[in-house]
Write a structure and sequence with these properties.
Number of strands: 23
Radius of gyration: 25 Å
Order of helices and strands: HEEEEEEEHEEEEEEEEEEEEEEEHE
Helix content: under 10%
Largest sheet: 5 strands, mixed
Shape: elongated
Length: about 325
Amino acid sequence: MISHTLLKLLLTPAALVCAAATFAQVAMDLSLNRTVYMQYEPIYAAVTLRNDSGRALAFGHDPKLQGFVLFEIRDSKNNLVPKRPGAEINTTGLLLRAGEIKRLVIPVSKYYNLDPLGTYRMFAYVSHAQLPAEYQSKETRFQVSPGVEVWSKSVGIPDLTGKGEEKSVERTYSIRSMTEGPDRFFYLVVEDNDKVYGVIRIGKRIGQEQFRAEVDMLSRTHLLMPVSPKVFHYLAFALDGTCIANQHWKTTGTIPTLVRDPANGMVTLAGGAVARVGIDFQDPNAGKLTATQLLNENGDPLENAAPLPQPPRSSGLLDLGKEVVNPNR
């Protein structure tokens, strides 16, 4: 015969499972578009919420409507990653109807200091005044890497006033490679001693094909990145990381190449012809959005938070699914 105490102990795990199921009124999922990021590259998290509470959950200013979406991030030493000064996640205006599923895309690195190199573990939490408990996502791991420098060029900022009074300031373009799974990706990093102006993902390593890089007389960098043995991606960037040229070229009777005129420093693209998407090559970015497009179209749930320093520019593409919605609608 089982004693009352032993019976209670045996039933406790089952009771806890039932309790967890009873109170799991919000299902939560956390995902990232990649597992490895270049240092200073913006990191976006997709938080998916499913409202199983049987009632609508409105996130507002009133104490009865207050709700939060928060993150707990720990580094490789299990230290808690701090928020950036003044960073507060604001979900006011978010509405989750009963049974509804919504996915929020949040620029996590804008609100938490993920600049240091290393491996991180991240959880997301949601709470609401009308919910009996706080709910946590599963753990997601990712790495922040310095990459491997494969090309570098230091340039001066040109004096466009013609007065020649300002002291020349040096800025550096570098191309770094980073391995993720079986693939190796290239990034362009634009920086000086005080600031990182751009961290831009510019292409993937294609076999033994080599990229080409040149800097013109206005200190703009021009890149020719192979997409296939016969198709190249031509990109050009200004000193602030802004992309000023974006085209695909193909080999015809001649091979596309970058030519720098030693007399005036002009860089031109010579040879080949313009490549046609869907005919000469398949667009690798089909169905994806840039981070800027994603936030412009779907809104930033943190747009009302305290102003923060602008993160480095990034033209990195995200593929977080088609269910992304505006949390402020």
